Amino acid sequence: MSSHQASLSMSRRRLLAAAAGAAVTGFMLPRFGRSATAAAPERKKYPKKVTDIVERSLVIDMLAPLKLDFRPEAYAEPLTAADAEMFRSCGITGFHNSIGVGGASAYDDALSFLAAWSGFVARNTDVFTQVGVITDLDKAKAQRKIAVIMGLQNADEFRSVKDVKEFFQLGLRCAQLTYNTQNLIGSGSTERVDGGISDYGVEIIKAMNEVGMLIDVSHSGDRTTLEAIELSPRPIAITHSNCRALNNHPRLKTDEAIKKLAAKGGVMGITGVRMFVKDKDPTTIEDIVDHIDHVAKLVGVEHVGIGSDSDLMGYDKMPPDQYKQLKAAYKASYAFRDKIDTEGFDHPRKVYDLTEALLRRGYSEANIQAVLGGNFRRLLAESWVPRPPAPQKKPEDGKPTDATQEKK
Q1: What is the pLDDT of residues 46-103, one digit of tens each?
Q2: Out of 2, 7, 65, 304, which residue is the most buried by the measure of CB atoms under 10 Å away?
Q3: What per-residue confidence (pLDDT) applies to 400?
Q4: Which residues does residue 94 pair with via DSSP β-bridges, in sequence order?
């Protein structure tokens, strides 16, 4: 889930305008440091085995916006010391900083997003580093920095095939083919009819493979998901979704899709969004582990990771007006409940609680490290290598081409 989507009633640009209007009337959206300035509960103490595993692991959250805040101040203001400490102590090295764009303003919104957050990273290099190649993640882990992977949860920003390379050169390393609704590439998960990948979509998939940009189908419809997996010559990702076999929600993935993803070497990140985890309360971190278990048993533990789909503080700590705007931007099929976050997975050190839960389920340290980030590191290493198109074979001298083949 993204914090906004232009294809519905609340586009990013409209949401920014709504936020600006609210500020004029006295409502202020949260500053970047909402977590640090609020009274925080005493930090939980974890068993040494849990902390050791997290500290040794390269933890990658494959859907983790740095901040659920739509104001320019979110990226323009200096990072507070308390927020810097929140990031340093969270246990996560790799944040896939990704939002949804769409509609007529998608290209401009995407450029603004990349410029804004790349600038934020550059002004706070004591805490953050931006990822261009796979070894940047390893360096960040060694230097105890936060590695930021720039992504987008749609492909409407690609006005033509050549835009794929241009966005890659600007730092974009992962893009969803579709958001929840139909675009020129394919269908989203909440569309009534899924027509699959279009001819234009085939060319976009080819271009993304050629430059080395990871393909994501988290919000894509069932047919679009399956065709994208089949059409891509190398593995793709479902960065943040859950298993429909455990929870019948249109945004989740079928066992068929999970099997085909894994057969090509792909990885699926499990999300902590409450209505994607379970359709009734209580919904806890144990229910998240149920989805990890399902993927591991279905296709192997090497094909599952985490994609929390939240910042470090979660959705439920957003101001009420902004929270209401967020929920209003989605179709009724999203089935929001009172809360969006899952109990036990709704705070800055949630990865420690997840590690503890995985240990309770009997996962080995090696398998926990794979789930926390090892599997996505492998996929990213394979995906982020440019693969130029194979050269066209020239016809042998003296022999006609197929198009000019003489009739016998």
Answers
A1: 999 999 999 999 999 999 999 998 778 889 999 999 999 999 999 999 999 999 999 9
A2: 304
A3: 42
A4: 60, 147
**How does DSSP assign 330-379, residue by residue?**
S-GGG---S--BPBTSSSTTHHHHHHHHHHHTT--HHHHHIIIIIHHHHH
Residues forming a β-bridge with 97: 150
Q: Determine the number of helices (DSSP H) and then strands (DSSP E) in the chain.
A: 17, 9
Q: H or E stretch including 3?
A: none
Compute the distance between CA of residue 408 and CA of residue 395 in angstroms, rounded to an integer.
19
**Phi, psi dihedrals of residue 346, rounded to the nearest 5°:** -135, 35
Q: State how far the Cα of 334 lies from the Cα of 122, in Å rounded to an integer.
A: 36
Q: Is the bond leading into 282 cis (omega within 30 degrees of zero)?
A: yes
Which residue has 């989507």 as its token pair? 5
Please give the pLDDT value at position 73.
86
Contact 136, 129 (CB under 8 A): yes
The Cα–Cα gap between 365 and 52 comes to 10
Q: How far apart are CA 219 and CA 251, in angstroms?
A: 6
Q: pLDDT tens, 248-263?
A: 999 999 999 999 999 9
* Residue 274, token pair as written in the block: 């409450």
Map residue 23 onto helix, strand or coil.
Answer: helix
Cα gap 180→177, rounded to integer Å: 10
Q: Which of 382, 380, 384 is CA-nearest to residue 94?
A: 380
* Nearest-angstrom CA–CA distance, 69 and 322: 9
Token reading at 225: 């998901």
pLDDT digits (tens, 9 = 90+) for 9-30: 334 433 433 333 333 222 222 3
Q: What letter represents residue 260's amino acid?
A: K
In a 3-state reduction of DSSP, which class is residue 390? coil
CA–CA separation, 171 and 31 (whole Å): 26
Report the DSSP beta bridge partners of residue 253: 243
SS3 content of the chain, % helix, strand, coil (to 5): 45, 10, 45
The tokens 């066992």 sit on which residue?
Answer: 255
Inter-axis angle of helices 285-299 and 350-360, to 10 degrees?
60
CB 224 within 8 A of CB 212: no
Classify burial at 225, counting beta carbons within 10 Å of its beta carbon; exposed 0-12, middle 13-18, buried 19 or more. buried
Q: How many residues does the chain have?
A: 408
